Amino acid sequence: MTPLVTAAVLLAAVTHAGWNAIAHRIADKLTGFALISGGGLLIGLALVPFTAVPAAGAWPYLLVSAAVHIAYYALLMRSFRLGDFGQAYPIARGSAPLLVTVLAAVFAHEVPDGWATAGIALSCAGLTGVALWGLRGRRPDWAAIGAALATGVTIAVYTVVDGLGVRESGSSLGYIAWLMAVQGTVLPAYFLYRHRAGAWALLRPHARLGLLGAALSVAAYALVLWAQTRAELAPIAALRESSILVGAAIGAVFFKERFGAPRIAAAGLLVVGIGLMLHTG
Description:
This protein has helices at residues 3-25, 29-47, 59-82, 85-94, 96-107, 114-133, 142-169, 172-183, 186-195, 199-203, 207-228, 233-240, 243-254, 260-277. The protein contains 14 helices and no strands. The radius of gyration is 18 Å and the shape is globular. Helix 3 packs antiparallel against helix 7 (142-169) and helix 8 packs across helix 11 (207-228). By secondary structure, it is an all-alpha fold.
């Protein structure tokens, strides 16, 4: 990965952790995710007139991705209901890179070299350490862990699907615009169906925060899609999950969740892993 691609993915990691923290902060998860998803719909529709329509070969990927993203939102909402942010977010994000490596090898024929493989393995070890520290002193909540792991599976699937789709699209910006426009209809529609006349009363107190989350979400994924047109999928997925460190810091500062020395050590493993992934031989 070039320095520019690396910087884009790291910026995506920060913005991604930011919108997830916003989603977690809004107490009613359906309200929060409806705002973020609906805001993404508005941003996508605003971009559509100014971007290229994705090529025909990209549309099957885009439609599959939209369906997987909806499942991802549903599972992430469940994860945030059941677990702490500092636990659910690391497990969901940290479980994805190894599965992405396998899927990318099978479907994109991208087999990482020795340095990248070692880097991905070390990064996953570091990310797992960050996640497991969230369980310290407590019995594992297997329902919360299961929801977070299932979320990780959807992350891996849409990462590979979109990596293939955006390469077929001819325009990463056009792809993200149409993806947001397609997937962004379902959660807001379900929210309106559930709450009907009382919907606006629930949305209004969180509207600004939710729309900020939507902007961060679209920016984060647009950066990742652009990066996927310029580098292999597995290293991008692993590097992107450095957002876990940002998420852990957000959990410590804003949600008063302990960070601790073990997480610092795990972060060190992650940094070494990233260095190996970026090794150019």
